[in-house]
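Hey team,

Filing this mostly as a record. A colleague (T.K.) asked me to run one chain through the structure pipeline before their review meeting, and I want the input and output archived in the tracker in case anyone asks later how it was produced. No errors, nothing strange. Just documentation.

Input sequence:
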Amino acid sequence: MQPNYLSQPQAYQTWRAFKLSNYPKEVGLLIVNINNPIKILDEECNLLLKICAKTNIVIYRTNNDQTDVKRSISALTQQLGLKELDANICADEDRISTIQDLGSDRASYIPYTNKPLNWHTDGYYNGDTQRIRAFLMHCVRPAESGGENAYLDPEIAYILLRDENPNYIDALMDASVMTIPANEQAGRQIRAAQTGPVFFVDEESQSISMRYTARKRSIIWKNDKTVEHALAFLHEILQGNPYLFRYRLSAGEGVISNNVLHNRSAITDSSSADEKRLLYRARFYNRVKKCDEEQDLQDVVNQ
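Output structure:
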């Protein structure tokens, strides 16, 4: 029995109550200090998993040892069950992307500029076989100013929309509601067009998941009044609600999430190349592994 199905209101109410119970009210409650990411302690691992199970996002803080950052990232994510790395066209050979302002080299890809990033989930333009279920973003050097992120758990977005109007969920689960046109450059197709729902039940984890972008260009929405109203209400939610987390990563800090909604403010960078903002991003086809709290939820729903 799945609590997210519109045809199962009792199961949904049980899941909703469990989800919102003791939900963190401030971003500081998402932060976990890690002594050594290469080999995290059991209590560190358990806390990371527990927070992520509740909110689908956790922030970690290390001592900012920059001797081998990518090795630390790989080790940390593997200990949390993240092993299926995505190899996107902008990633390095090790499938970890270097995120910084690259000027005209990648000006068409906003993450590699100092421009603000609108609300989205990662890989919303990917097909089902390359679905992004989790990501890590690690900060080596923050910008001189700006670069703050806001985050929203997709399950919370689902609840807020469903509480407002269950028809909004029905409309946004339609398999034809959102189309991302093909990515074509210099007459060559980089990626085919992708059509699919905004909300869906992930077949592997049976969790409510989301693919979404607030972009106005290069996106086609189903011509439907309920879809139009649902998107307007989602936009309203993303402007501010009690469950939003805002945080600017400092050096040695990172965020791990089950592909939550997120954005980024504009960046003012240093004029010195050695002091410019530098982050690493890893995307995964699987989610952070489950902890006991997630099992407790499933037990409650199945009763």
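Quick notes for T.K.: Residues 202 and 209 are 6 Å apart (CA to CA). The chain has one domain: 9-302.
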